Structures are given as structure tokens and as C-alpha cells.
Amino acid sequence: MSEYRVLHLRSSAGLYGAEYVILGMLPELAWQGIDCTLLCLDNQYLQMQPLWIRAQAQGIDSERLPCRGRFDFATVVALRARLRRQPNTLLHVHDYKSALTAWLARGRRHVPIVATSHGQFSSTARLHLYHLLELSMMRRFDRVCIVSEEMRPLLIRAGVREANLRLIENGIDTHRFTPLAPPLTRADFGIDDDAFLFGCAMRLTEQKNPLGLIEAFARVAGGQRNCALAIAGDGPLRDAVKVRAAELGCSQRVHLIGVRDDLQRFYATLDAFVLPSLYEGLPLALLEAMAAGRRIVATAVGEVGSVLRGTDAAIVPPDDRNALTSAMRAAMDAPVPSAAQRQRVIDRYSVQRMASDYAQVYNDVWNRHARAAA
């Protein structure tokens, strides 16, 4: 095992893309000889702490750090105490609150810090301020990892040295997400067995564009084709999605099935996966659906174009509902994708590759830190 321990810090509002990246990465890092502990900053708005609960269920070494507000100095004190107990430590931060906590807790100690930027998506003025703060701290970190090449110019403009940037694309468990996964029973959700089933796994937010998806699907369904739409996930736009589906006369064909922990079975139930997002970094759901062998319709956002280039997938401009409608119609007559689509995920986007890349970053940073301290 490694001569140091990596403490991963995450302030989480639920189980979303970044959380699943971390939950997938830590067990694989253990296999590769990197000792890790996940420190979950408590979210004062949540009665339960879902990231910590899921980590515990997976057998991941994890702890909770107290946090009673947007910033709580008790969190800094708790992390400082942990650093005193375990001096050979490298910190890996995954969000602005974790970055600030790690920076303050380190103080004058020579504790290396690695950050991952999972995506700078500022939907409010407050989030924009927090992300500016995070960017200013990243200039002082030992290494900053990005999940999408398009993030690089933003970080360089913010003053992060290009030599300290490392592209590490997200990875998934290709043994879990496979065309051989048993599908869900459609009848359980009121979906006809012979319907062509579109679907997506998303948080129901403006970024993911569920209302645009509903409008495109309504046009497809209006052509009297036997089709349905299933959406796995939840979020603040859930009621708006239901209202819009009713207004467009397709509510009987739209099925909101909520948050699922068996997404491998959900993808196996679909005929085509649709990603209608307005902006993204590198969405895990897209990689999962590709590994599951589904037909793909996706908007050209973030790394999506790079991921899908040369495959059978349909790629459309973001927020172009006419193009999205046409691509969904075409998907109904398209053949099942070739094995090359899944192979691309195995070769480039596996959790094993992702963990190996992070292990190399840790070792490089730690060795540099050790030489400087000698």
C-alpha cells in the first residue's frame, strides 16, 4: 500500500454525477494500492447524509465532518485534528466548500492538495461567487484535475498554471453497465412491451433541459408512433415536467420513475437513450448508456462530441428542439449500435483507467512533496 493516505473531501447535496465518480473511484484506488478515506461534509439542509450512507453501504472507509452552515469553522478544526493524527496525508478536494476547508485547515503545514473540477456551472449569483473563490484557491494547489478539455482555458484565465493541470476523464464500471443486464419489467411502470422506449437518467434541472426533451418527445409521439418516454431521477423541475407533458397531451406516455439505484437495469429496458442537456462536462449517464449498448441521441455539449465522434450516435446542437425531434424520430428506425460503441467506453472511460490516472497524480505530487521536505 502507499506510504501516504489520500483524504477525499466532498460537500454533497445528494447523489449526483460527482458523487458517483468518487464512489466508483475509491474502491478501485484501493485495488491499485492507494489508501483513501472519504470525508463527507455534513449538509445542514439534509436530515440524512446520502453520500456517507452510500459509502458505508459499499464498504468504503468514510467519515462525516461536522458542518452547520455555508461555512463552519468547526469543520476546519475537525480536519486540522485529523491532519495532526495522520501526518502523511494528501488532500483531494471535490468542490468549493471542501477546497476552502482544506486550504484553511492546512495552514502552514506542508500538506499537498489535489483538486478535481467536476464542472463550473453557476446557476445563481451566489454559486458564481463560490466558484470564483474556488478558482482563486486552485492557483495555490499542487494539481488541478479537469474532466473535460473545455475546462482548461477557464482555469488558465483564472491563473492556474497549465503545468499543474491534468485531464482525467470520468470512468464507469463497465462490468455493471452491460447489454447483458436484466431489464426492468415495463408493465410495472405502465409501459407497453411493444412501445419504442426513449429514456434518460438526469436530475430535473434547467441544465439537463427536461422541458426541451418533453417538447421534442411530444412531437415524436404526435406522429402516432407507438413510443414512450421514461425519466429516471428527480429535481426541482419535476412538477413543471408533469405540467408540460399534460399541456402537450403526452402525459400518458411520459413516465417519471424517480431516483433509481439499479440504473444498469433501467438502461437495459430502453430502446434509445437521450441526453438533451444545455451544458455538461463529461456526463456519466451517457457513458453508462453507451456501455449498455443503447442507441444514443445527445446534444453537443462539453466532451459529448469527443466521446461520440465516429460512433452511430446522433449528435444535435443544444437547445435545438427541431433537431432533437428529428434525431429521436430517426432513432426509432436505426439499427442497434455495433459493439465498437461499448468498446470505446471500455478502452477510454473505465473506472480502472480513471483510478490509474489519479494514482499517478497522487504519486507524482507526493514524490515532489517528499523531495521538497528532504
Q: What are its keywords?
A:
374 residues; alpha/beta; Rossmann fold; 7-stranded parallel β-sheet; 6-stranded parallel β-sheet; 14 helices; 13 strands; 41% helix
Give a written overview of the molecule.
This protein is an alpha/beta fold. It has 2 domains: 5-171 and 350-367, 3-Layer(aba) Sandwich (Rossmann fold), CATH 3.40.50.2000; 186-348, Rossmann fold (3-Layer(aba) Sandwich), CATH 3.40.50.2000. 41% of the residues lie in helices and 17% in strands. It is built from 14 helices and 13 strands. It has a 7-stranded parallel beta sheet, with helices on both faces. It has a 6-stranded parallel beta sheet with strand order 10-9-8-11-12-13, with helices on both faces. Strand 4, helix 4 (96-106) and strand 5 form a beta-alpha-beta unit. It is elongated and about 70 Å long. It starts with a strand and ends with a helix. 44% of the residues are buried. The model has no long low-confidence stretch (mean pLDDT 93).
